[in-house]
Amino acid sequence: MTSSSTTAARALDELIGLAGRPATPDIGDAVVLDDVAKTYPDGTEAVRGISLRVAAGESFGILGPNGAGKSTTIGVLGTLVKPTSGRAWVAGHDVVAKPIEVRRRIGFAMQDVGVDAFATASELMVLQGRLHGLRKADAVTRAQLLQRLVGLEQVADKRVSALSGGTRRRVDLAASLMHLPPIVFLDEPTEGLDPRSRGAIWETLTELRDRLGVTLVLTTHDMDEAESLCDRIGIVDHGALVVEGTPESLKSTATPTLEAVYLHHTERQAA
Ligand code: ADP
Description:
CATH topology: Rossmann fold
Strand order of the largest sheet: 6-7-8-3-9-10
Radius of gyration: 18 Å
Number of strands: 10
Distance between the termini: 47 Å
Bound molecules: adenosine-5'-diphosphate
């Protein structure tokens, strides 16, 4: 184990103590989508009736080509997009009827969204903790632990605007974890990152799932990411879920790799 991974492992031990809950929280299905559809005001049918369940402590990947409806789907779960029809529950709460209850239980890491580029990484994280009702001293302690977990100690006092894209991604992830949510949504968490930064984020997410029982729902284009992070995946095309299962169960003699599975189920798009 390298010294940075030892530091991260110790930080995670302390965070698990702070979270004060069993590794797999007793919330049954973390995510339920029941025939969810979204048509935007301009008439675009982004999601056309998606149903799926994600168990607590599971990691689920939503794969699909550009424009398939992945971000809209995860936006509904994160209470950012109101579905046109159907219902969705997160941690047992209806996303439309109880958005505040949902937001208290989720972290949402998106590309650069909500990042005030003039704040430092620490300021941003402490603010996020305060918004979730943490006392200042607790927010500072937790921010330091999370910075150690994702390897941000060296840049904690730098302005976010001065950081590289990969480091900003880690700031955003760490900020989304300030209230130690049992469920985390990630929209393309490692897009455009170099292999080392990508691996560091995968390691953090895997640890959060395995040791803290965090449920992960992520969108991705990256087959390696889906394969190494996700217990199950769902492939979305033209706003519909075309297939779901474990990466292994979806492979066959005709489609021996996840990429082949993906291409097989989305070939209408490519044709
Ligand atoms: P993905 O994340 O798979 O790329 P999105 O959910 O972002 O897909 O988009 C699905 C479809 O909805 C696309 O055709 C996109 O252009 C459209 N769309 C997304 N957001 C909006 C919006 N706010 N208004 C109108 N159309 C949108």
